[in-house]
Each structure stands twice: as C-alpha cells, then as structure tokens.
Design a protein that fits this description.
With about 280 residues, this protein is of the alpha+beta class. It folds into 2 domains: about 1-115, Aminotransferase class 4, branched-chain amino acid transferase, N-terminal domain (D-amino Acid Aminotransferase, Chain A, domain 1, 2-Layer Sandwich), CATH 3.30.470.10; about 130-280, D-amino Acid Aminotransferase, subunit A, domain 2 (D-amino Acid Aminotransferase, Chain A, domain 2), CATH 3.20.10. Helices cover about 25% and strands about 30% of the residues. The protein has 7 helices and 15 strands. The strands form 2 sheets. Strands 7, 8, 9, 10, 11, 12, 13, 14 and 15 form a 9-stranded mixed sheet that branches. Strands 2-1-6-5-3-4 form a 6-stranded antiparallel sheet. Strand 7, helix 4 and strand 8 (about 170-175) form a beta-alpha-beta unit. It binds N-(5'-phosphopyridoxyl)-D-alanine. N-(5'-phosphopyridoxyl)-D-alanine binds next to helix 5 and strand 13. It catalyses: 4-amino-4-deoxychorismate = 4-aminobenzoate + pyruvate + H(+). It comes from Thalassotalea mangrovi. Involved in the biosynthesis of p-aminobenzoate (PABA), a precursor of tetrahydrofolate. Converts 4-amino-4-deoxychorismate into 4-aminobenzoate (PABA) and pyruvate.
C-alpha cells in the first residue's frame, strides 16, 4: 500500500504527519476523490480544477499544476496495482508550532495522497445495482458547502444519523424545504420527462459526477434537464430519485423515510442515465 506524502512515495506505515498539522487540529484543508478503473481516471481535469479552486478559496498556495497532479495520480495508481481505485488527495494548510486560529504566512502545505480499492465501474443493470434507502434530514451544515473541505463533521453527523437507523444515505433540505444534496452525494429527481437537480450555490458541492451526468443527459438523452430548486414535495412525489458520486456514479434511490419511490423499484430512466454515463464517462 503505497502513499504519497510531500513529494515522496512510501509504504503507508512510513508516512508520518505531525499532530500540529492544521489539517488534524482544525480540519484546515481541501480534499478530492478521483476514481480510476484499470489506470483510467474519470473526470480527472474537473477534479483537479475543483481542488485548485478550493485551495484558492481558502488561500492555500500550492505550486502543483494539472500535469504534476496527473503524474502523482498515475504513479500512485500504478504502484497500487492499477485496479479499481479511488485516489484520495488531501492538501492541508500545513504544520505550525502553535495552535492559533490565524494562519502564518510562511506555512508549507502538507500534500498527501493514497489509493483505496473501489468496486468495478458500475453498469446499468437493474438486478445488480445497489438500490438506496434514504432518510430526509434538515441540512445543518455550514454555508460554504461548495468548498470540498476536509472538515466533514457536519456531513459525518448527518450520515451517521441515517446509518444508525439502517439507512444507506440521507437527503438534506434547507430551511425553505428545498433539496440541497446528500451527506456524500449530489441528488437528482425525475418527474415525467424532466430530470432536475439543485443549482450550484454555496449549499452543495459541485460534484464531478453531477457535472458529467448533466453533460451526457443534455447531449444524448431525450429528457429535459433542469438545474433549479427542487422542493421536498417534488422529491417525495418523484418518479425516480438518484444520488451521484465518484465511486457510485448514478445510484437509484428506492425509498425515502421508508416510503417507496417510484413503486419501490429501480427505474427505467435510471437505467438510461447510468448506461449513458458508462458510455461517455472517460
Ligand atoms: N464525496 N456532495 C458531497 C457532500 C460529497 O462529499 C460528494 C463526494 C459529492 C459528489 O461529488 P463527486 O461526484 O465529485 O464525487 C457531493 C466523496 C466521494 C467523499 O467524500 O468520499
């Protein structure tokens, strides 16, 4: 199990990070998860672009460009067998001798990456796909959910609330009862010939799977695709609900708060969407 830490590749047991790292003390950092199937990355450029935008947003200066990230990710995938891997990248602000909220100007970011095994690329198969049962919750996270921060306590607490009750994920709603996203996924609803997902703003992460899916649906499907506010009533009455993330791709939701969605079965539109995603993802 090879990892990358501050410019070097090493077995994971040898990777040491100071407890004074602000990633550990404050959750002061940005991360990414990039899927890689047999050495081929899905959405590599948009993933790195999002990482760079997140770093700029929190004022971490890191002179690692797209090509260098590609080298690091390719090396890591290769050293870990080039199977089906999630490449985790994390850049924290770095280590400081004192714990103080303001960050020093001269701090060196800590750059860490490792690879973890993921299931093979999902295929559009109604019988084999994992169907999700979700719980609805008020979204109690912060107001900068567009930043892929390593400070995930809000997401963790929401996910755990569902998990303890036997749910696979949660759907989060803001104070106006509008859908934001899931604890670790974006969300889509299908009603008739319309596929809708909440618009990008500070209430949700700009998911790369969301981005790719919107693009393939607009190019290759006959559905009307809308980025707009989605009410809780619309979610509960939808024909289909999906959640999307890098490792799941398009995942069908078959029940919400123990009530069936779309008859409690994986839908036809899901099948088309995952099929299109599979054909065009790389
Ligand atoms: N989760 N929303 C949240 C809050 C997420 O954490 C994620 C991803 C997504 C989907 O984004 P993408 O399609 O770029 O993976 C949406 C990652 C995989 C994680 O934390 O493990």
């Amino acid at each position: 199990n090879w990892v990358f830490l501050n410019g070097e590749y090493m077995p994971s047991e040898q990777a040491k990070i100071s407890p004074m790292d602000r990633g550990f003390l404050f959750g002061d950092g940005i991360y990414e998860v990039i899927p890689s199937y047999g050495g081929k990355f899905v959405g590599f450029e948009p993933h790195i672009l999002r990482l760079q935008q997140g770093l700029a947003e929190i004022e971490i200066n890191l002179p690692i460009g797209l090509q260098q990230w590609r080298d690091i990710c390719q090396q890591l995938a290769k050293k870990n067998g080039n199977g089906n891997l999630g490449i985790y990248l994390q850049v924290s602000r770095g280590t400081s001798p004192v714990r103080y909220h303001a960050y020093p100007d001269d701090i060196e970011p800590t750059v860490f990456a490792y690879a973890f095994e993921i299931p093979p690329a999902p295929v559009a198969d109604k019988e084999k796909v994992k169907a999700y049962r979700v719980k609805t919750l008020s979204d109690l996270r912060w107001q900068r959910c567009n930043i892929k921060s390593t400070a995930l306590l809000g997401n963790v607490m929401h996910f755990q609330t569902g998990y303890k009750e036997g749910f696979d994920e949660v759907l989060l709603f803001n104070q106006d009862n509008m859908l934001t996203e899931a604890a670790a996924c974006n969300a889509f609803v299908v009603t008739g010939k319309v596929i809708a997902t909440p618009p990008l703003d500070s209430q949700l992460l700009p998911g790369i799977t969301r981005l790719i899916l919107l693009d393939v649906l607009r190019q290759y499907s006959h559905f009307t695709v809308e980025e707009r506010s989605v009410s809780k009533a619309e979610v509960l009455n939808a024909d289909e609900v999906w959640i999307t993330s890098s490792t799941k791709q398009v995942a069908p939701v078959i029940s919400i708060d123990n009530n069936p969605v779309g008859g409690g079965r994986v839908g036809d539109v899901w099948h088309q969407a995952q099929q299109l995603f599979s054909e065009h993802q790389f």
